[in-house]
Amino acid sequence: MKFNNILVQKNDSLAQITINRPKKLNALNKETISELSDAFRDLEEDFNIKVIILTGSGEKAFVAGADISEFADFSVDEGGSLAKKGQEILFDFIESLTTPVIAAVNGFALGGGLELAMACHFRIASDNAKMGLPEVSLGVIPGYGGTQRLPQLVGKGKAMELIMTASMISAEEAKSYGLINHVTTPEELLPLAEKLASKIMRNSPVAISLAIKAVNANFKDGVNGFETEIQGFGACFGTEDFKEGTTAFLEKRKPNFPGK
What we know:
Elements lengths: L5 E6 L2 E6 L10 H15 L6 E6 L4 E3 L12 H20 L5 E5 L2 E3 L1 H8 L2 E5 L3 E3 L13 H9 L1 H10 L2 E3 H7 L4 E3 L1 H16 L3 H13 L7 H12 L3 H11 L10
Parallel strand pairs: 2-3, 3-5, 4-6, 5-7, 6-8, 7-10
Antiparallel strand pairs: 1-2, 8-9
C-alpha cells in the first residue's frame, strides 16, 4: 500500500506509522486522515502485528493540528460532516483497535494532533513536546473527540481550563495531569516506545484485546463496563493463550502465546 503523507514500517511484530508532512508540521488534512485510517485498518488485520507506534516525522511536531486551509470556508453541515467522518474512520477507530497503539509525541501536538494522540491507548512524549487544544482561539471547538477524551484523562476542571484558555502545556505538565505516561529526550523517545512495546508483546494478544474492550466500555454511555469485563474474563478461558499462559506458569517457564 502506497501513501503520500505517511510512512509505515514493520519490524517483526512491531509496526510504526509516521505522519510525514514536515513542511506542514505534519498537519492533518483529509488525505492524511484517510491514509491513516487505511494504514491502521491494514495493520489491525495483520495477525503478526502485536503493537503499533504512532509518531510524526522530525522533532518539531507530532501533529501541529488540522490543516485549517481545507475547512476555513465550510458551512455548518460541512463542518459537522467533517467531524463525524473523521471520528468514525480514524479517531474512534484507533481507540477501538484490538492492537495496542502507543503515541510517541515529538514536538507540537495541538488540536487534531492532541486528539489523535488521545485516541491512542496511551502516550509518551519527548521533553520538548507542547500540547493543547487551541480551537476556541479560531472560533471553533475541538471536533475530533477532544472535549470527550481530555476530561476522561485529566478531569473535567483541568480540561475545561485547557480548552477555554487555548493554552499549551509542556510534556512534564501533561505527565503531571495524567495525559502522558512517560517523558524522555527526543533521542530516546522511539527507543522507549519500542521498549514498552516489547513488554506488551510478551503477553497474550487475545487477553490484551479483551482488556482494551473492557476499559473502553467504562467510558461509553449505556454500556456496563463491569459486564463487559465479566464476559471478557470468561471468554479468556476458552482461548489457547489461557491454556499456554497457565501451563507455562505451572511449569515455571516463559509463555509462548499463539494469539488464539
